[in-house]
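[retry 2/3] Threonine synthase: previous attempt timed out, resubmitting with same input.
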Amino acid sequence: MPHSTPRLVSTRGSSQCEDFTSLKVQGLCPENGGLYVPSHFPHVGLPVLESWRGYSFPVLAQAVLSLYLPETTISTDDLKRLLEKSFSTFEDERVTPIVTIDANFHLLELYRGPTLSFKDIALQFLGNFLEYLVQKQTVDKPVVVLGATSGDTGSAAIAGLEGKTGIKVVILYPEGRVSLVQELQMITGNSANVTCLACPGSFDECQTLVKEAFADKDVQARFQLLGINSINIVRILVQTVYYFYSYLRLAKKIGDSIDYSVPTGNFGDILAGYYAKRMGLPLGQLVIAANCNDILPRFLNTGTYSLNNVVPTISPSMDIQISSNFERYLYELSGRNSEQVATWMHQLNTEGSFSVSSTELAQARRDFSGYVATRDGCLETIAQIARRSEGTMVLDPHSAIGVSAAIQARNHDIPIVSLATAHPAKFPDAVSKALDTVGIKNSPWLSHPSITALVGREKNVGKLSMFTLEALLKYL
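[retry 2/3] Threonine synthase: success.
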């Protein structure tokens, strides 16, 4: 299929385009702190989609990613090898199996990787890809992967990068605001190249410090910083693959519309769906599923993106107010107006809010819908699905928010897919509480061998006493 290969530009404007394989683009734009986005979206027509039916996940991933990573930057054989290696770590050869809840209502299981989170899908590949880039390029300063996590990114990043040659990994997480399992997955490893830092505050504060490090000229001069959060554009592109994969398996006819409901925190997962749609995948409604930290549904209701205090919930990976990837969508919403995006981001940082025009709000409402699930609604959804399936289908508190939103949003004549983003064993307290209400005891979904193996392991964790670059630099 003839097409021009996209390059990368900054959401806040930049003097030049960059290649996807440049180490420079694996984080924020050093010129202005913007996020890298494709210069355009390669088009995938219906005949090509038809030809992709039946592809395995690794083969489909190669077909999609090769649109962004031409053979001049990474050979076909090397890309194939990296993808096969990345997905060989999953417990299901389908990588992202699909389960049917009822007619036209499906669950896409994204948690079959080594840390039982959807983030394994991108981060298993990204770990191998970054090691490949470092080995292929001459780097004259220490290479440090720096990231913040609200729970799952940290453990998935560590699983993808532990032991990688020439790369140090530093992960910040909000102490007391991730689940016990998430914390154990991060701090019980023994890889010499990994440092985990427990921080006093919220995920947003951790993420802000990481962004500050990426934007600091002195830090840039001393270290080659690489991003592992979804600020790394390669993560988003890999995540588009499971939208293609599930669509091609569920569509009765290529061209039919399918809706998707996505548990949303940092906006990366649903942005991947939006990108897939821009590439030509016939997706219908993209549903933003939020907990009470509902900044994105509020934006769709009012046209104003306004920060509130983060409220800790039973779905901690979604306890976010500053959804970093939303900036990438704003770039598209503004007609790729980098000056407007920079203005909005400045207003957000200085005033705590910004507003879009009525025309832009109308477009946002065409692109997305937003629904909120309360704590009780989340627990009720876990219980309801478990009861209906006689205990064979159990959701974690994040996936339950996606299903709750799907129930609110669905048109029964159109298939809808809800993304299951984590294994319920990562959140046993909340899940067992919900199951108790329907008389389900000792569910096998409350444990997993990889989690059981963490108990009793030595903990390796540092403490970041203050949210300052000076304090962080001691660990880089």
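[retry 2/3] Threonine synthase: The two ends are 44 Å apart (CA to CA).
[retry 2/3] clearing retry counter.
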